[in-house]
Amino acid sequence: MRYLLLFFLLLFHAKLKAQQTFKTKFDSFKKLEIDSGITLTFDEPDQLNAKLPTKLIIFALPNGNTTAQSFGKQLAPGDDWHFDIQHIGAQTAFIRKTDPQTNYIVVYAENSLKAWPSWRRKFANSDDRIADLVKQVENRYAQYHPQLMLTSHSGGGSFIFGYINAQPSLPANLVRIGFLDATYGYETEKHQSKLANWVKLPNKSLQVIAYNDSVVLYNGKPLVSPTGGTWYRSQLLAKDLVVAGQLQKQELEDRISFKNKKGTLSFTLIKNPEAKIFHTVLVEKNGFIQLVLAGTKFENKGYTFWKDRAYTSFILP
């Protein structure tokens, strides 16, 4: 009886420990609050090895999500559904396991309005503030000489366009930009030349993923305007960047793609004949992994974009 009681106590303790895993992990992250309502959350590897290359990934949150929800966890009864639509934390863990010879640091960029477009409209000098924020994050890891990567989902793309606006030209240590259904704010006049000049430089990568949102109706009305969605804006960006190199168009049953030979300049546009809303599904189906690994030797290693989750085992309870 005593051993049976001990067994159940150990089982209860293990279950309790598992239930606390997400909270323990998330609470361990360093956080930095900046004036104007910005909160940065730092997901660092367990060990930062100064001898390894470091990739510093800033992830600008989508509209309506908190950092905890974007990080993600297994849903329990009563949990908000937002905890199960992105899983940037689990996808980051997958990336680290796939490429253990690189320090991957992910910095979540959140603001109190839960919408980067709204935040930028609130502050007259918002673009300069974003540029200063990025520089502050870079300086934090200066000893590791990080390669900077700017990634985003949804309205988080506004953060990246704000950063681009503030730069006379994009810096050399910025090696990758990733838009995950986040090109709403692209404007030819403001962004074409800077992006075109940047992608011509060695070891630069621009990854764009979107879907046909132009056919979607929400409450009986079009989800986006004819020229305001990511389907239109992403194709406009692809057209504008032909000046930066030859893009090969490929059309498959479920997608249209525009890529250069190396895959470092890539547009993946998912068709939508049934007019569904795929806005978050693009993230769920290994979208963040694709943004980070596309065009590298790790692309499609253990995962496939637009297929089942490859990171399920890394989702914390």
UniProtKB/TrEMBL annotation:
Residues 1-18 form the signal peptide. It comes from the Bacteria. Keywords: Signal. This is Alpha/beta hydrolase.
